[in-house]
Amino acid sequence: LLQRAARTFEVDCAVLCKIHDGNAISVANQWCRDGSSHRLQAELHPAVVDALKGSGFFHTKNAAELFTAATVSIQNEDIQRVQSFVSIPIEEDGDITGFLGFASLEKTKEWSSASLEALRVLGNLVSDAMIRVRAEQEIQFLAYYDELTGLPNRTLFSDRLNQALHVARRSEVFVGVMLVNLDSFKMVNDTMGHEHGDQILLEVAQAMEQRLRKMDTVARFGGDEFMIMVNNIA
After folding, report:
1. pTM of full prediction above 0.70
2. Distance CA 94, CA 63 (A)
3. 8 A C-beta contact, residue 49 and residue 40
4. Within the chain, which residues score under 70 in pLDDT?
5. Strand 95-104 relative to strand 13-20: parallel, antiparallel, unpaired?
6. CA within 13 Å, CB half, 7
C-alpha cells in the first residue's frame, strides 16, 4: 500500500508511524524508492500533533519542524534530505493513534486539494484496516486465552497437551498434569467482592507462571480451577 501510494503521488518515501504517549512516534512500516530503511524513534513537535488533531494534515518544507529538539535518533542528513513532507492522521475511536507520512527528497512538492482529499480517504482506509486487524487479534486471543489472567484456556491447554503427549510417546518420557483449585474461594467473593476475588486469581496465576519452566503450561479452566502441565519428566 505504501509503495503504491508513494508512486501514485510521486514521492520518494511513504511511512506508517504509530504515536505513543501523546507525541512519541515509532515506524510501523515504510517504503523508500532508494530502498533505504530508517528506524525512527522521536517525538513529534506539539505543532504537528495539534495540526493532526485539528485540520488532520501537517505539511512542511522543513522536515526538522516535525520533531522536538534532541529527541530524534535518526541521522541529521536523512532529515535534511527531505524537501517536502505531508502527514495524514490515523484515527481509532476519535483518538489519533498514528499517521501516514509522504516525503519528497528530490524537490519541493506542492499538494493540490484533490490530492490531500485522496490522502484523507487513504488514511480512513488504513484506520479501518487497523481497527479490523485489532478486533481479529482480540477475537483470536479470547478463543484461546482467559481474559482475566491472560493464561491459556482449556481449548489451548488441550491442544498443547495433545502435542506434548505425541512428543512424549516418541521420546519415552512422561507428561504430568495437575489440577489446582483454591479452597474457600467462594467465601472471598461473598465477603470481599468479585473485584477483589479477580485480583487474587490474577496474583495466583502470575505466581504459578513464575514457578514453572518455559516448556510447561498453566491454564485457567474457569472459576478457581487451574490446570498445570509439566513436560519431559521421568
Report:
1. no
2. 27
3. no
4. 37-42, 45, 55, 61-65, 67-81
5. antiparallel
6. 6
